[in-house]
Structure formats: structure tokens, C-alpha cells
Amino acid sequence: MLCCTLKKSPSESSSGLLGRRVLAALREHDVTGDLIRVVDHPVAFGVSTDEGDGDAWPQIRERVLDADILVIATPIWMGQPSAVCKLVLERLDAELGETDDEGRMPTSGKVAAVAVVGNEDGAHHVSAEVYQALSDVGFTIPANAVTYWVGEAMGSTDYKELDPEPEKTAETTRTLAANAAHLAALLRDAPYPST
Questions:
Q1: Of the four, 29, 48, 109, 194, which is 20 to 30 A from 136 by CA?
Q2: What range(s) does the NADPH-dependent FMN reductase-like domain occupy (predicted)?
Q3: CA 61 remoteness from chain centre
């Protein structure tokens, strides 16, 4: 789980909360994982796997490549994925130039999903942008691979303040987890062919 909130720890984050709920739903399918709040790490701008001295991306990248499932959690800002999310996607762009011995990107056979929160419209737009970028760099997107909550435009209520969580969001989180876990198991047992 790469949490792309703009808020550094220990600040509460709606993206982080939805991300943790996705991880809890994945545990129901025997999938374990953890959440990395990207903004807590000195990730350099760039489009390579390592931007040099002090860049934290190589360690995050290693964890992403060790995982079968990547979930990106992002808030909506001005109808767009957060700047942190765009930074992550730009860093993942480096995977286009990396291949294994059989010509596949290191992300081939890995599943990706998206979690979106915000107080404005744009969840479908944000998920479409992130889906396309993740697909471009080799991830496979399962059906219903997004969960989201969008409050009133310019509203003052955040997802993290909702108790209980809206049932529709909880339902889409469960569906995302079930489909991502199922597809990851299938791809692990039957990898994509070499190119």
C-alpha cells in the first residue's frame, strides 16, 4: 500500500485510513501487507529507479516488486491524484526500461488497485489516471479495483471523520480485496508468457 497523502506522520490521513481498511479486507483473503506513507520518505523527483544519494525510492521500489499486489491510496486535489501520487507514478515509469531474462517488466504478473478519498468530485477520473499509468508499467488491473469516498464539494467533512464508514465504500473495499487477491493468485500460478 503506497499512501499518497500530502500529510506527514503522525497527522491523521483519510487516504491512510482507507488504505488500512483495504489492507484489513485483503487479510480476509490471506493477503498480508503494510502501508508506506510516501511523504514520510525522501523520494526524489525523477523517472529512474534510483535518483542518487539520499533517494528513498530504491527501498520502496524493492518492497513494491516483492509484493504480488500494489494498492495506491490517494486524495483528490483539484480533481486530480495528489502530487505525491503523480511522483510515485513518475518513478514507476522507470519500469518501462527494465526487463527480466524473458523480456517482461518486473511488474509483469503483479496486480494493482486504487483507493481514493476527497471532498470533491473526481474519484472516477483519478482512478482512471492511476489505472492507466499502472497498466502502462506492467501491472494488471482486476475488475472493480477501486474503492472510494467522495464528500460534498468544498465540504468540511473528511472520510476519517465518518463513523460508521459508509456501507457502499466498505462494500467496494471488500470487492476490491476479493478480486485483487483472486487475480494475484491466478497470475502467480500462471504467469504471463515471455515476450
A1: 29
A2: 9-148
A3: 13
The pLDDT tens digits for 84-119 are 999 999 999 999 999 888 889 999 999 999 999 998
Contact 74, 115 (CB under 8 A): yes
**What pTM, to 2 d.p., does this model score?**
0.95
Would you say residue 194 lies in a domain? no
User: Which position has the grid cell 493468485?
Assistant: 185
b/e for 92-130, b at 16 or more Cβ within 10 A?
Answer: bbbbeeeeeeeebbbbbbbbbbbbbbbbbebbeebbebb
CATH number of residue 52's parent domain: 3.40.50.360
Q: Is residue 75 part of a domain?
A: yes
What is the domain count for the chain?
1
Q: What is the span of the domain harbouring residue 28?
A: 2-188
Q: Cα separation of 89 and 70, whole Å?
A: 12
- Is 195 among the domain residues? no
- The dihedrals phi and psi of 58, each to the nearest 5 degrees, come to -55, -40
Q: Give the bridge partners for 117, in sequence order.
A: 75, 149
Q: How far apart are CA 85 and CA 72, in angstroms?
A: 8
Burial of 153 (0-12, 13-18, 19+ CB in 10 A): exposed
Residue 193 falls inside a structural domain: no
pLDDT for res 21: 98
